[in-house]
Each structure stands twice: as structure tokens, then as C-alpha cells.
What does this fold into?
Amino acid sequence: MLCALGLADQLVAVSHECDFPLEVRAKPRVTRSRIDPQRMSSRAIDETVRAAIAKQESLYDLDAEMLARLAPDLIVTQQLCDVCAVDASLVAKALHAVPSHPRTVSLHPHTLEEMLGDIERLGAATGRQAEAEQLIRRSRERMAEVGRRVAKVAHRPRVICMEWFDPPMTSGHWVPEMVERAGGTDVLGKAGKPSYYVTGEQIAAAKPEILILMPCGFSIERAKTERSQLTAQPWWNHLPAVRAGRVFFVDGPAYFNGAGPRLIDGIELLAGLFHPSLFDSPSPVRAAAL
It folds into this structure.
């Protein structure tokens, strides 16, 4: 969001997850995850997360000393999900050691509209109101164009978006809305509500015609290493999406898992998968068939 507002040069540090645009990868990182998602299986990650939550332990470390040295004027954090990123309470504790007494802006969007509202908030907090208004306007125009093209489709496919494989979870928050805007029907996800665990029986009963695999925090290549967690299940081969060859990996961290302007890219990506006769097919780096 900040870089989209033209503030990349003013970023003094980022989190361990920040990787876009490319220039932020060279910035100092003030957070570290206690989980290694590249080495741990989906099941092991889920068990570690549950144990930490039960003990009210953080999954992340924040380098308070570095934060104090950098002396930022503004800290942008989030309150949406303690599992996905450093939560606002951990940041609040670290602020006592920061001599610059920075302001904080904490984001917690659940819908596309709230994401756009956060862009407006950041614009106001950074003196980039004009840039924020332009970004919001352009985002609305792109969503409207997708909506115009799918308005008359004869069939909206039944879709399930999977945010985790073992145990299986269906995507929530803004993702069901993205599916709807792209010309599909999310048959398990609940718009504006958190992602939640589902059973194989629920997945089978929903009879998805398209299955979108977007495990939180996993690249397409990393997600592919976990595919057997799904394909080995007894219900897998009975899914209409599997029989029709309409199962797709997508880049979840880039276009779906986190709130930001690239969610609009995600809508366009989904539209290309749902209605290939109306939209260009997504590039292989954005989506790949199972």
C-alpha cells in the first residue's frame, strides 16, 4: 500500500514477509517468524500455531532495538490476524523504547471496501491524499470493468478457495467477494468473515466446479509440495473440479492472502480462470493447473 502511494523511498524498514515491490527486499527487516514455513509441513505449522495461541504466545519476534535506532515517524501494523503477521499489541510494547514516539496506523480490513478505506487512511496519514484517491479510483474502475464483462455470463461456476491443506481451510474475508466479482460463486467461504476449518465431507458435498489453491504464505512452488495432502484424500477424485481438470494453484501471498491493491489483480486473475473466453489467461507465475 505504501509503495503504491509513492512512499518506497521513505520506508526505513519492513517485515520479514514484505517482498513487493522488489525494492523493499533490500530494506532492513524488523520482524522474524518463529515458524519455518519452508521446512515444516502444513500439519506441523498448524499444530505449532494452535499451541502458541493456546499459550497466548506470539509467533513473531520484533527487533525493538533496531526499531529504536531507525526512529520512524509512522509505524503501519495490523490487527486482522495474529497468525499471519505481527499484531498491534506486540508493536505497542516495543514503542516504549522508540525515542521518536512514532504514530501508528493499525489496519484490520475484512472486505474489499475496507481495504480501499485503509488506502485512504494511509494517504491521509502520510500526506498522500491525492495519490490515494487516484489509486482507489483506478481500483474501482478495474473492478467495474470485470463486473461489466461477467454481468451476462450464462453460468457462474461453483468455487472453493482453499487457504490451507492440512487440515483443510476455506478462505474468508475478502476472497469470497473476489470470487463473486470475478463471476463465480464461493460455495463455502463467507464474505467478510474469517477463514475456517472444513472437513472433506463438506468439500465433497459442496461439489465445486473450480478449486483454487491459495495456502496462506505459500508460493505456487511451495504449495505444490503439499499437493499430496489433498490428492491422497478419498473424496478428492470425486470432486467435479478434479474430474474437469479445473484445479489451480495461485500465488496466494501476492494476490489473495493479504489486504492491499494487488487484490484487484487477484480478481482479474480469477476472472481469467473462471471465464477464459472473456479474459486473458493468467501467466504461469500467477496461476498454474494442478
Observations:
- The chain has a mean pLDDT of 92.
